Amino acid sequence: MSKLNVEGTMLFEQPFVRVPYENYRKIFKSSQRNLDSQMAAVATASNDLSGRAKAGGHVPADAAKSIDGMIGRVENLKRKLSDLQESAGQPTQDVMRERLQYLAVVENVPNTNAPEFSRWADTRLDRWLVDWALRTGKEKTARQIAKERSIETLVDIDLFTDIRRIEGALAKHSCSEALAWCSENKVALRKIKSTLEFDLRLQEYIELCRARKPQEAIVYSKKHLVAWQDTHLEKIRQVSALLAVLPTTSCGPYKRLYDHARWDTLVSSFRLAAYTLNTLPTEPLLNLALYAGLASLKLPACYAHETKNADCPVCDPALGKLAEEVPFSHHVNSTIVCSITGRIMDEDNMPMAFPKTGYVYSREAMEEMAAKNNGIVTCPRSGSTCEFSALKKVFIS
C-alpha cells in the first residue's frame, strides 16, 4: 500500500478553490458598492430631515415624502441584493461547497490503493482534460466532457469562455472588452503591479495616430495617458511623437510602435494577467502533471536510439518531446531495465553480458532467445552471437 501525499496532491488544487472564491469576492464587492451608495443617500436625506426638524422649518407633508423616499431606497436595495444573491451569490456558494467537499475526500483516503482515491483521481483527470481543452480552444469538447462526467461545477468553463471572448476582441483590434475587464479588476491588478490597462490605453492612442486623427489622439492622451506619467513618462513622450510620424515610417522605434504584432503581445499580457488573478498556471494542469511524472523517469538513455525502452514513457517520441523541457531525474540507486523485454533486471532476473561486446540483457530475454535458437543467442545491437552458456553474469555493487 502506498500512503497518499496529501500536501503534494493539494499543490495542484489551489486554482480549483481560488476561482470560485474570486467570483464570490466580486459579487460581495458589488453588493457592498450598492449598499454604500444607497445607505449614503438615506443618511443624507435623514440628516437633512433632522436638521430641518431642529430648525423648526419642516412641513409634515414634506417630511412624510422624504421618509417614503428613504423607505423606497431601502426596499429597492433589498430587492437588488436579493436578486444578486439568487442569480450569482448562491450558485457560486454552491460551487465552492461542492469543490471543498470534493477535496475533503483526499484527507480521508487511507492510501492510493483505496477505491475512493481511484474514483477521485479519475474525476481529477477529467477536470484536467477539460482544462486542457479550454486552454486550446476546444470549448465544445470541454463542455461535452464536463456534461458526460457530471463535473460542470468542478471546472471553470465560464471563466475560460470569458477569457477567450476578450482575447478574440483583442485579436480583432478592439480594446473595449479588455478595458472593461481591467475596470472590474482594478484593485487586484494594482496589487500585482500589472501595466495591462496602460498598455491597452497606449494601443488605443496608437490606433488614433494610425488613423491620422491628431485632435482625438491629443484629447485621448490628456484623458487616459497623462494619469500614468509618474511611472510611464518616457513611453508617453515617445508615443507623443507619433502625431508627427506616419504609419509607413522606416524609423525603428516608431515602426515598432505601429507594428500590428503589438496586438499579439496584448493578448498574451491579458491572458497572463487573467491567469495570475485566478492563480491559474500558464501551462495546462495536464501538462504540469505530465512534467512531474516525466521528470522522475527521464534519463540520458531515453534519447539514445540504441538504449530506448518500449515501455518507458519518456522514450515515446511524443512524450519525449514534452520531456525535453524537464530536468533529468536523480536516482540514488540506479534501476537497470532490459532493452528487449522492458523488465527490470535484479537478483531474480540477472543481467547477462555478451563476452565480446559487453552488451547486457536480462536472463529472461536470453533464455527465451536461446530456447528458440538451439541455445544460441544474438546481440540485437552488435549482431554478435554466442552460446547461452558463454554469457557472463553481471553483479552491480
TrEMBL record:
Its main location: cytoplasm. Residues 312-382 form the RING-Gid-type domain. SUPFAM superfamilies: RING/U-box. One of its GO terms (biological process) is proteasome-mediated ubiquitin-dependent protein catabolic process. SMART domains: CRA, CTLH. GO terms for molecular function: ubiquitin protein ligase activity; zinc ion binding. Keywords: Cytoplasm, Metal-binding, Zinc, Zinc-finger. InterPro entries: CRA_dom (IPR013144), CTLH/CRA (IPR024964), CTLH_C (IPR006595), Fyv10_fam (IPR045098), ZF_RING_GID (IPR044063). This is Unplaced genomic scaffold PLICRscaffold_18, whole genome shotgun sequence. It comes from the Eukaryota. It is found in: Cytoplasm.
